[in-house]
Each structure stands twice: as C-alpha cells, then as structure tokens.
Predict the 3D structure of the following.
Amino acid sequence: MIKNTPTICSFCSNGCGMFIRSDGKEAVGCLPMTLHPVSEGRLCHRGWNRFQNLRSLNRLSLPLIREGSNLKEAAWPEALQKTTEKISELLSRYGPQSIGVIGSPWLTNEDNYRIAQFSLDILGTSHLDGSYRFSGASALTALDRLFSGPFGSLATIPAIAQSPTILVIGKESCRDFSPVGSRLIKAFLHGSTLVLADPSCTRKEHFFKYLLPHPLQSLAAVFKDKESLPPEVSTRLSEPGLALVFLTDQVGSAASLLSLLHSLSPRSATENHLPLVLPLSRAPNLKGAWDMGIRPPEGGLTLHEMLGEESEVKALLIFGDDLLNHLVTSSMLVKFRNLEFVSVADRFFTDTARMAHCVLPIPLLAETEGTMTNSEGRVQKLRPFVDPQGESRSVAHILQDLSQRMGKDFPVLSEPEVRVEISKNIFPYTAVASESDLENVGGILLPTQNAQLPCEPSEAEEQGPEGYRLLVPNTLYAWNRNQMIHESPVLNIEYPGDRPAVRMSPLDAKELKIRMGEKVKIRSDRGEAQVPVEVDENIPSKVLMLSSHFVEVVESLAGKGERDVTTRTLFFPNLAVTVERL
Amino acid sequence: MDNIYLPHKAIITGIQDETYDTKTFEFEFVERAVKESFRFLPGQFLEISVLGIGEAPFGVASNPNHPERFRVTIRAVGSVTRALHELKTGDRVGIRGPFGNGFPFHEMKGKNILFVAGGIGLPPLRSLIEPMLDSRSEFKDIQILYGARSPADLVYTDRLKEWEKTPEIRFMMSVDAGDPAWTGNVGVVTTLFPKAGLRTQNAVAFVCGPPVMIRFVILELLGRGFAPENIISTLERYMKCGVGKCGHCAVGHKYICLDGPVFSYKDMMKLSEKVV
Amino acid sequence: MEQVVLQKSNLNHWVELMHRGFQVVAPSRVQGEIFFLPHAGQLESDLLCGIATLPYLPPKDIVFPQSETLFSFTRGAGDIDFSVPDRPPEKRVLLGIRSCDTVGLNWLDHFYLSNFHDFYYQNRRDPLTLISIACTQPMKNCFCICCEGGPFLHPETTAFDIQLVDLEDRYLVECNSEKGKALVDLNRNLFSQPDPSMVEARDQAETKSHTRFLQEPTSYMSAAIRRITSNSVPPEVWTELGERCFDDGGCTFVCPCCSCFGVGYTAKGETGCHYRFWDSCDYSGFTREVSGHNPRAEKGERFKRRFFHKLSYHYVKKDGRIGCVGCGRCITACPGEVGMPAVVERLRRG
C-alpha cells in the first residue's frame, strides 16, 4: 500500500510539512501534515502537486561531457576526471582566484556547508556566492547589519495571525504564500488591520484595510511624511506587535530595507521594537544557503563581480542552480557564455546545463536527507521517499571524488555529522546537533537575538516626477522559470510563460490610443526602447510593469542598473518614463 | 470491460498540407477488428495521442459513410499538435473515440440546409456535408458559405473548386483580406449574406468557426428569421478525457464531450454560463 | 436489511477471520495523523466507536487515487505496445469509515459508473466491502446532518454493505448487501440476534446523535441552493469569496464528492506512460485553452463554478443529491476560511 514519508515541501521558503506518498519507487501523491506549525493541514497548489515533478522522466541520469556543440553521456570516472583536469589546469595557469563556486538555495544546508568548505579548503578560492545575490542578498545583508551578523528567527508564521497590524509589501507576498495568506485572513477575521503596500495594484482584496501605492524603497519616506498617510495607518504602524511581510527578491538595495525597518521601529533608549519580520523567498533554502556561508569571504568576489567586465574568474563550478536564468544583465550572460569552463551539478537538463562543459547528475531534494532553513528561521529535516535514482551521486561524493583526484582529502561525512560541524561553527545553528530536536514536527527555530537598529536611516528613494512610472519587479525567481514547475503538468499550465511586453492599464491604453500587442516607445533618462503593450486591468493608471528577466529591454531603458555598494550587487530600480505611441 | 482510457493503435496513411500551419492526416486503425467495427457520426470527435507527449480532441473531417480510413485536419498551435505535425506517413498514434453527440442528420431530411464555416471550422462541417451529398435527393437546397482570413488560410482548396462547379450545392467564399491573385469576395463571411439568396423557410443553419465569428453569424441568422432551435453550432472547451469524467469541459450542468459539442443556439442559451 | 449483534470484545476475532480472504484496512494513528492502513496487530478501538473521527483524505483515495498510471507504452520495430497496470489483486474490507464518507462513495459510484464506465474506478471499487460506523458524537467541523450525509446511514437512500452502531459494549451490525452478509457468514457464532430493547437502544442512539449534531454550528444549505440555482447571487459576492481563495485546490482534493482529474504524459526513449492525477477547477489553468483563451479567467468565476457544481439544483437532479456530505474536510484544508459552511453562510447573508 501507499507509504507516507514525512518531509518538507521544497518549492519555496514557507517550508510546509507534508507527506510524500509513494508506491514502491513511484511518487503518487502528497498530503499536508495537520500538526505542522506552518502547513497546519493545508498546502498551496505547488505543494499539492509536488509529486508530479518527481514522476518526470526528464531528469539527468548520467554525467554529460561536451564535445564540440554536443553534450555526450559519459561514465562518472571520465566526467570527474575531465572536471579535475580542467580545474587543475586553471589553478596552475591562473591560480585559485580564477575559479568561482556557486552554491544554491535549492540545496540543503549540509550540501551548501560542504561546498563552502570545498571552495575555501580544497580549491583555495574565495569567489563563492549564490544566484540569490540578485534575488534576496540585499534583504539578507540588511538584516545581517541589523543583528551585526547571522540572525535567527525574526517571526513565526503562526505568530503573524496574532499581530494587531500587519504590513504586507507586494500582493504576491500574500497570494503566492498561502500559509502566510491564511494567517493574514485569520488576523483579519479577528479584527487586525492589514495594510498592503503595492504600486502595481488598482484594487486591494477586501481583507486589506488600506492600500499604499508605494514600492518598498519609498515607504520609509512615506511613513516619515505622515501627511500622506491615513492617520490610522501611522498610529497602527508604530504600535508593538506589528508584523512585516515582504518578498526578499523585491528588495533592491540593503539601505532601502534598513530605512524601512528603522521607520517601523519606535526607538527607545532601552528596547528595540523591531516588528515581526518575515522575509519570503521563492527559493526554499535562501536563508540556509546564506547562513552556511555561500557568500564571498574577505577578498572574494560576489556573483555580480565574478561576471563583471574586469573579473579574473575564468570558470564556474555550479551546484544545484539554473544560474543562466538567474542573471540580471545581458553582459553577465555574455561573460557566462564565454567562460573557459563551466561545470553544473543538477537534477534536470536546465538551460544552464545545456551551456555547460560538464554536467553531473545529483539526487532530487525528495531523494535527499538534509536540512533547510525556511523564512521563519526554522531548520527542518527533509526525508527521502526513495533512494537516489539513476546514476545520480550526492554532492558530498562528488566533492570527495574531485578532492581525491587533486590529491587532497575531503571525507564524506553523514548528514548528522555535518550538522555537528555546523552547530560548532555557525552561530545561531548550535541546536542542530540535536537529532532528537530535529525529529520534532516543526524542527528547530533558530534563536532570536536583539537587533541593533542603525543610528540613522539612509536616504530614501525620491518620489518620481509626474508622468509614467515604470516598475521593474525582479522576476528572476518567477515560477514560470523554475524547472521543477516545468516538470509538472498542472503547475506548468498554472504558470504560463510571459512575453517581452510592458503591461499597462486600459485607461492609459485608451488615452494613448494603443491596442493590445501594438508597440510603444518608452523613454527614461537612461535610454529608450520599443516594446509591445499588454493591457492589464489590474494595473493602476500611469504605471507600467516590465518583468526584469527581459534583460535586453530593461537594459535599454535603465542602462547598467544601479549598484548597491553594501550588498555588492546590481538591481534595476523603478524609473520615471515617458510613453508615446509609435 | 472496455477501458475508455486506453487508445487503439492507428497508423498515418496519408498527410496533406493544407496551409502553412494546417495539415490533414488520414488514419487507419491497426487492429483489424477495430478498423472494421469503427463507425462515427458527423460532428463527433476523436482523442488522438502522441504517446508520451499528450492527447487532444479533434473533430473528424471525413465522410462517415467511409469509416475504414478517416481524416482529421489539424492546425499546429500547441505541444500536441506540433508533435503531430512532426510525424510522417507510417507513424503510429493512439486514438480513442468517437465521442460527442454529433450533428443531427436524419431530422434534416426535407429541409433547406445552410452551412456557414470560418477558417478551421470547415473540417468538422465537412463530415456532415459529404454524407448529405451522398444522399443529395433527401435534402432540399444545400448552401455553403466559407470564409477565411486570407487565401493562404483556405483549406480543402481542391474540394472547394469542385463545390464551386457542381450544381448540387450553392457555394460562396470570402476572405477577410485578399491577395493580388484573389478575385473573389473580400470581407468577413457575414458580408456574403446579402448576396447569398438565403433560404430561410424550413431551413437549418450549421455554423462552425472561431467564437467571434459564430457570435456574429448567429446574430445575422436570427435577424434573417432563423429560429434559435434551427441554428446549430459547436462549443469548444479545453478537453481531456472526452468521456465526461475529468470535468474540464463542463459548462453549466452539461459536458461538452457528452452533451455536445453540437448544440443548437436554443440549447446554448439554456446553459447556466454565457457561452456565445 | 439484517440486524445482528457483535460484542465489541469479538471484533478482533471477526477481523482475524476476514484476513483469510481480504485485506483489512482500518484507521490508525501514525505520527499523530489518522491514515487508513492495512491492519496488522491491534485495532485502535477508539477510532472505531461512535465518536466521529476522520482521516485527512476520504476513501475516494482508495478507489480514485491521487495519481494512477493509465497505461505504459513501449515503442519498438515500428509498433507500439500498451500495458495497463494490474488490477489490485485482493478483496478489501474498509473497516471504520463514516457515514459521510460512505455517502461520498455513493456519489462517486454514481458518477464514475454512469455513462461511460470508468475502468480503473470499477477495478478498485468492485473488490471493496465497506463497514461504516455510525457517528453518535460529532467532531469539530462536522455538518453532515445539514447535507443528508449522516450521522446515521439509511438503506433507503444510501447503498452500504454494513453499518455498525455503537451501543457501548457491543455493536449492532446492520447488513445491507450480499457483500455485508458474506462477512457476517464468516462465522455466525460470533453474532447474536438483537432483542427488542436493543433495537430501541439503537433508535435512541440515533435520536441522541441527531441532537448532538444539531448543536454544532449548522449550515442551512437550502438558501444557498436556491440562490445558486436561480443565479441570483450578486457578482460582487463571488468576487469577494474569490479573493479569499488561494487557488490551492485543497478543498477539491479532500472532498469526497470531487472527481476531476488531469492527465500527464512521460516519455524517455522508447518507453513512457500516461497517468492521471487529481485536478482542481480552482486552478486558473483548468479551463485555459491552447490559444490562451480562458472562459473562467476570473477567480470569482471559478469560485462560483465550483459551488454551482456542488449545490445547484441542476446537479442535484442529475446526481440524486447535492455534492456535499458535510464531512468538514474543506474547512481544515482551506487557507482562506471559505470552506462550505462559510460560503453557504455568506450566500445566505446576501
């Protein structure tokens, strides 16, 4: 009969407890856990359909080695040997700083920890980072600043339901994360005040009391200038028990989040009243990968810098990430394509794998034992429902093998053994050494420390002039670009692909006399582009929306984007633009 | 017990290019027992699967009086139809069916018949036109009005030429936009109505085509005196099983695959959701 | 309908006898959750008494599983070979399902075995014998009494094999079919004839049960049925309800009367399979056509559609009853707190 394996859904940072149901080696279904603090007997449509991508036959079964324009199947020894030879060659010609290593928020804590160790101890390179550099690192950097280092749990999802006031930034933070949405609705039904801040909505759902048409980066200034707010909002936002919910990949600069948090935390000499903060992500282990050290130590380059014009990096070893689809400018794509050597360890034949020189199959998250840290700072164990299929090998074995071939020792430790290491070396993961605590439904909540609020808020973004405002939401981690989604028949239809087009309100389209599909010329102070228009009645007047992953169009309008010096990354801010019919 | 979800093997016995994105496939069932017992009504559809890729519903476009080989006209728009277009004569597919309620046939005897087809709406109507021509004397006037976006979008061009010539039917065509070689009517198919000399008494109209076209044609026909129960069309919805179980094609309390796809306009208005 | 009496102390013995010809599936706790699992060892008697308890999924999961392979295929030498998975070999007894779930299975039987017979459903349904336990005490979220879904089954309206009525130290065993009788025939000595006082006790138990169930928050379905059938619910109400819906599909998956499915296709090299899985009309892609056109693009429209299917009189006529048995699972599964009772209440308010 059907076996029910208790594990954690690994689509997003909610970390819902669920059972993967299997019949022999085949995944046949999913069920939510009724007793889990996040899922509480519910799942979202991704979670309910998680089993489908586990049935896909498209996963990589054997290593692949590039021969000219083709990738050919090869045996493991050959693939590992090829990789080692290339690495050794680069090390001897250019030194360790010619190699960059990419960990992933789609890998477990243990695997990321191993990758960090491998980079530093075996390869000797400090160019270590993750694709979240462009999709979440700014938020995590800001929070690190607040706590002068790694931070623990800043809020639990169940606690949100008790907050008298909840500020939700971005409609997607509620819509796309149903455990959070569910607590918002519970709070609403008990009389809490819900405030939505989103410049791209005309209408708020009925359970939000207020809609603030401002993006995250403008909110600090808006809250300061109390004139522009309904009076009740100001009062409520400064009361204790406030909860803040936002999507990390929509935070452009660390300063903008710090500003916002400062404006929401009433200052007093003795205490810090930081609100409950829930940083959400469409990657399941954003916080875990970050905490495990997948970021450059002193002297190392961030991913942005690794793929910069003058970078010394000539090769990338990529683990568990479809990196090509997570890069934010076309010049980075060009640099990536011109690298001397790219190795990819992944589960499916992604676009990145297609470009690689060597591809190594690793087990699915559903075949892995290991932990992940969700947006609540909750560390939870994944449990495999089946042994790794095909010829896939674990990251641990791959790293050991590569090390051995380079004449070094990198022992394969079991997951519990790695957790002991983590508990010793990574604050605040001390408690993960306790296997019995991890066995509890709901895992381990990382301890919370006191926040050190910054002395003064940084300059907030200026309000744009009259005219059109072009919003460029960060869509690198959008679901319709996620391979796990593509491998599921239902989810693939739920998240249809989008075309390079700018979305515009029907009122503006009428005024400009533009019909669906026709092109418009959009001009900013940094450039211009001709883009087709899609009419969307959910968009307010004088607002245009363009997904950031259409990099060429975004770049022609926004130039090189904006650097965030703190996070050492790049983002595309919202722009003041003019629009004319062609 | 019959397994309604298990396809029968069928082999492609011929492929005809109709337009730049449309082909007509001719099929024959592989198993003799199936081939010999296969029958379908005009207007019914088949669920054709490219194994491992997907399955989709297609109206049968050939004459039910010759069921041993049957034809389906397919435009490449999605993953299944694109996969079908990659296949060659001799390749095998899976076919389930026929499903659906089909067009009324015997009840039409003794009446004036009008066919109004738009673009890819002609293929399913052809499964009704051909047997009517086989029993021509049982019907009164038969008129076909056919419209397409452009001359390059016309299907069955050889058959159309025959229809233009034969005295058995009155046939007119129109294109939304012509090309240098086009000498015929230019305009949407409703522009043919004033010139068509429609028989509106004791008449039934069969309308097939894109939803927008159906809406306008029905308005025209009502305006010219056709009663709602005498305007017959087809409803389309995303379909999966074809047998009224998967739920995708439900409209109101009807299933398009069981109670349709053929509906009179009168029945369409009774459905609890707006359909046309 | 035959009535016999079984002492509760003989239940294990009876189940042992069943093991000879059947796989016995009974409720058991695993990590605090209740699953229906092949029975081995001790029966959990507190899950087999009059106090209502429900596994997360209804038994529809056994006859219409969350996903199942329709057929696999192999291509070779220009030909294709199809292979349908083997039928479940054993006969099974589902011991300890509840009235609501039995009514739900009736609904599914009517749906899947009418018009075209569903081959896979039939294969899983035929070898099943159902032993349902009448509920004398509701649990949180029960509203079967508002939906003619319980708490006791009646042979005039519902087909069942056996109904057990909890009479403290014994069960009254009500056999309503040949399959049920066959189980009792395994050993008639385990059973005794009921005396009049026992039948009296059974009727009292039902009356008391009704009283208790009516004390729970009730759901007045008829107003909702009327408003939905006459299409007199203002569109703003559906929009508002749609805003509370997260398109997760949870309600459809846990509902004993939901039956929609999608089909997936896998292939690698020369082999592959076509499989079906639970699908949900909540999903935006449910009716989206290849052209991109979607007749139910708005969430409010999808929400309205689902409740039309559940409650409109058109469907009641077709299916013989409303598409809800009052099990309360949708209340647990819904993130937006718009399960059946909440919606019915909202529709009543207008």
